[in-house]
Amino acid sequence: MSDIPLTTSVAGVPEAAAPRQPPALTTGPAAWLRANLFSSWLNTAVTLVLGYFIVRYAISFVDWAFINAIWSVENNQTQACRALKASADPGACWAVITEKHRFILFGTYPYEEHWRPAIVCLLFTGLYIVSAMRRFWRWELAIIWAVTLITIGILMWGGVFGLSYVPQERWGGLPITLILATFGLAFAFPLAILVALGRRSSMPAIRVLCIAYVELIRGVPLISLLFMASVMFPLFLPEGLNIDKLLRAQVAVILFAGAYLAEVVRGGLQALPKGQYEAAEALGLSYWQKTGFIILPQALRLVIPPLVNTFIGFFKDTSLVLIIGIFDLLTAGKTAIVEPAWQGFGVEVYIAISVIYFIYCFAMSRYSQNLEAELNRHRVR
Amino acid sequence: MSQTATDPRHLRTPPKRQLRLSWADERVRAIVWQVLIVGAVIGVIWWLVRNTQHNLEVRRIATGFGFLQREAGLPIGEALIEYTPASTYLRALTVGVLNTLKVAVIGIVLATIFGTLIGIARLSRNWLLSKIAAVYVELIRDVPLLLQLLFWYTILQSLPGPRQALNPAAGVFLSNRGLKLPFLDWQPAHSWALLAFVVGCVATWLFAKAMRRRQMQDGQPRRIWPAALGFMLGLPLVVWLAGGAPTAIDWPELRGFNFRGGMTVTPEYFALLIGLTTYTAGFIAEIVRAGILAVPHGQWEAAQALGLRSGTVLRQIVLPQALRVIVPPMTSQYLNLTKNSSLAVAIGYQDIVSIANTTLNQTGQAIEGIAIIMLVYLSISLSISFFMNWYNSRIALVER
Known about the structure:
- The complex is a heterodimer.
- By secondary structure, chain A is mainly alpha-helical.
- Chain A has 15 helices and no strands.
- Chain A is flat.
- In chain B, a hairpin with a 2-residue loop joins strand 1 and strand 2 (172-175).
- Chain B has helices spanning 2-6, 8-11, 26-59, 89-122, 127-141, 145-157, 188-218, 225-242, 267-294, 297-305, 310-340, 352-363, 366-395; strands spanning 166-169, 172-175, 178-181, 183-184, 249-250, 253-255, 258-260, 263-265.
- The relative contact order of chain B is 0.12.
- Chain B has 13 helices and 8 strands.
- The chains are: A mainly alpha, B alpha+beta.
- Chain A: It is found in: Cell inner membrane; Cell membrane.
- Chain A: Keywords: Cell membrane, Membrane, Transmembrane, Transmembrane helix, Transport.
- Chain A: Pfam families: BPD_transp_1.
């Protein structure tokens, strides 16, 4: 071993390799930037162009929304706002929100009683949060809903426990939006389950009725149903019987939502393997036992994410009652800028209302995504 | 196959049971339930109809569609066909239907293009681009469409007047009176060229079909694009040249307090189009993204391993599979856009809902007015879903 010289050199092979460069970084911010923003000349160009526009518009937006903005004015004196709007360096007039936020949120509800609709909004929000938590997914949830909804009714109407009576015509703003959405869902959901079951029923007459209902409602816009509720509904009822406009709109919203939710539920019923139906029948369960204990718990679980997405669509659609003149959040915002002093500040008001809708819808959409991931965890390997 | 058909075991039918008149027989129960429910539904409808008849008598409202022939007397800002306030209600409603179709068709085309671009941008490897697309989708989808329409309309209305109109490009003016664009001074030759283009498209389609059939017979691919170019561009060009090649362009000009000439896009239509397009594009982007993600990556790799060019891979391998996932939800988005165009009534664009609403307020014919609205939307919805179902069955996976 020892007689083998250590310096065996073959022609053409370098004696000692030159020290090699370390490989390019694959971790760390520099590598991340290179991989995600500057991986090719095209990518770099896109990044630079987008970056330029973002910086430019972000600066002018911050200028408009914060730096130049006017946050409050005294006694509806909006001249400063108007001057700012017409100037070369415009700014937002958030004073309209400062001045009108109570009106936008609660409409014409008596001013000194505004704490009542405020609590109602909190109760609704709490109800949504509780319903979203899986540990509350049991039959007691129905009791929580019933109790909360009754409390909300007492708070809004008053007339008992020393609360002054507030007629329904004076309700408005966010509580109306939440009432339309919540009661709409609470009644549309059972209706939807029945219709979905009916559409898959073996009884032809019931199947035809359910198909006709779903297709008819889904074929027409919600507005036409709302018009029907506001214009045609009084003609349908016997003389002397008058139903409040809000309730009529609520019925239209329930019928509308019922058809859409029914299709989602039907999707779940169809996705369930046939073996589940057959096994339940083989156990000798009756139709309602089979449906209640075997089919629905599985089918509904399958369609929770699309259900939440339908809820979001539906929460947004309640804003359409503006067209028949019901005083929901959007109508309140639109009315707030009718007053001559505040005309022309629509953009600020609409942005503020968008933020409220966005908070509710974004929370629901995030929740639905998380839930979907959680429910599918057993499928992901 | 023939064995199983003659196999006596397969010919056996379950024994016929006698129908017993007892609650224990499920067929009897089914009949009773159906009779009860149908009876209840008919009863309720009958009750509503009787109430309605009585109420109409009390209020002295005559039913029927006779009012359609009366003079409407309602002014309509923009109409695709000739219309004056002296025209009949039928004419006014037709104008409304055409206005609805005008915004729905253009909205569908724009939303598809815009939504596809955003969907692809969201899949981009450029972090900034994909994040911007994601933020756009979240923002647009979580705010009610009606609110967005009001927002766009407010912005368009707060633009400066015609005298201080924004002028982003030569001949393009944006003011609170709407968007003004230069447009061809329309001559009959243009109409003929347009017709020639349609004929060219049909000819291309027939030609491609014939070539495909020939390819199926002998396996030789044939070039389609030279003929297609000739049909779709050459034919209209020849017709246009034969018509005298008119090139006059109608430029909008400021005369007094408003613009003259050119093509006008009213603020109402513009706001509705922007709102519907951006809103629906947010949903279409998600559908396109899901469709592309649904094609497994192995499909790309397998096609590349076969030596196909990347354009061919996209057209022949990936797109057909992605479309299968995309088309059904896209159909419902098209339907949604059409139905959402009814929100026009909130910003004063005169679509069918707006005109029917005015009609029913003027004549008191509530039932007929709403029936017309529903009928129009039902027929539009049914036509779109019929067409998309036909398209879907064409591209659907053919299984054994």
